[in-house]
Amino acid sequence: METAAKTREYYAYDEVREWPMVDGWSVCPDDSHFRISVHHEARVHLSVLLGSCAAVKAGAVVKAGAVIGSGAIIGFDAVVGAGATVEDDAVVGSVALVGTWAKIGSGSKVGHGAIIGFDSVVEAGVVVEAGAVVGSGAKVGSGAIIGFDAVVGAGATVEDDAVVGDDAVVEAGATVEADAVAGA
Question: Considering the entire predicted model, what is its pTM?
Answer without folding.
Answer: 0.81
